Amino acid sequence: MAFESLTNRLNKAFRDITGKGKLTEKNMNDMLREVRMSLLEADVNYKVVKDFIDHVKEKALGADVMSSLNPSQMVVKIVHDEIVELLGTSEASINFKSSGITTIMMVGLQGTGKTTASAKIANVLKKKKARKPLLVACDIVRPAAIEQLKTLGNSIDVEVYSEGADVPALTQAKNAMEYAKANGYDTVLFDTAGRLHIDEELMQELADIKEAVQPDDILLTVDAMTGQDIVTVAQSFNEQLAVTGLVLTKLDGDSRGGGILSVRAITNVPVKFVGQGEKVDDLDIFYPDRMADRILG
Ligand code: GDP
C-alpha cells in the first residue's frame, strides 16, 4: 500500500515525543525535524514540505502547545489537520448539471489508468447516484483501448459508444452527444487518448474535444507510482485544459506517496476519486480526512 514507510516514520517521530511527560522546545523541534525528513523521504515536493512545517509550527505556537495538558497529542492533531489541509479540506464531487446531459472528460498520460477509471466512475455513478451513463471510446491511438473499454463497459452493464479506430476522436465525441440525447443518457464520459509524454498534438486534440462537448468536469488521472513527476504533468494538463478534478490511481501499489501528497497542494485542483486496484469496484470517493487517518496509521 502507498504511504507505508511514511506512516511508519511518522509514527516513530510521534512515539518519541508521546513517551515524554512534558514537551520541551527541543523535543518539539526534534519531532518537527523528523516529520520534515519523513515527508522529504516520501518524495513530497520540498516547497510543500517547507510550507507544511511552517504551518505546523505556527499552529503549535498559536495553540500554546507547551503549556497545554497533553502537548504531544496536540501536536499530533495539528500534523493530522495539516495533512487534511494538504489534501483538500472538503469532499469534492462531480459537477452535475442541474438539467440536461452532464459531460465528463477523462484525460491523462497513457498507462495512468484512464480507461479503467472511466469505467470505474461510470459504475459508481450508475450504482450510487442512479445515473444513466454512456462511455465513449475516444482513445483511438492505443490499440487495445477501445476493446478494453468495451469489455469493462460490458462487465458493469454500461453501453460504450465507438465508431472504431478509423473515425477521428473529435467526430466520435460529437456523434456520441447526439446519440446520448436520442437515447436518454444523462451522463457521458469520454475516455480520451493518452501519450507516454505530453505533446502538442495530444493537447490540441483534447482542446478540440473540450470545445465540442463543453465538459462539466475534466478529470485527470495521476498515477501514484510515478512519484514527483506527476506534479509537472498535472501542471501542464491544468494550464492547457483547466482540469476540474484529479483521480489518484494505483494507491494499492507500494509508492512512497509523495507525488500525490504534493499534487493537490501545487495545482490546487481537488482530488475527486481514488483508484485502489484493477477491478472495476476498486474506486472510492476521496475523503481527505480518511486519507490523513490512513497516512498517520
Ligand atoms: P490508460 O492507458 O491510462 O487508459 O490506462 P489503463 O486504464 O489501461 O490502465 C493501465 C494499467 O494499470 C492496466 O493494467 C490497469 O489494470 C492498471 N490499473 C489501473 N488503475 C489501477 C489501480 O488503481 N491499481 C492497480 N493496481 N492497477 C491499476
Describe the fold and architecture:
It comes from Dielma fastidiosa. It is an enzyme of class 3 (hydrolase). Its main location: cytoplasm. Its EC number is 3.6.5.4. It catalyses: GTP + H2O = GDP + phosphate + H(+). The protein is α/β, with parallel strands linked by helices and 297 residues long. The chain has eleven helices and eight strands. The protein has helices at residues 4-18, 25-41, 46-62, 71-87, 114-129, 145-156, 169-182, 200-213, 229-241, 258-267, 288-296, and strands at residues 102-107, 133-137, 160-161, 187-191, 217-223, 245-249, 271-275, 283-285. An eight-stranded mixed beta sheet has the order 3-2-4-1-5-6-7-8, sandwiched between helices. Strand 2, helix 6 and strand 3 form a beta-alpha-beta unit. Helix 4 crosses helix 11 and helix 7 packs parallel to helix 8 (200-213). The protein is elongated, with a radius of gyration of 21 Å. The mean pLDDT is 91. The chain binds guanosine-5'-diphosphate. The site of guanosine-5'-diphosphate (GDP) has 21 residues, from helix 5.
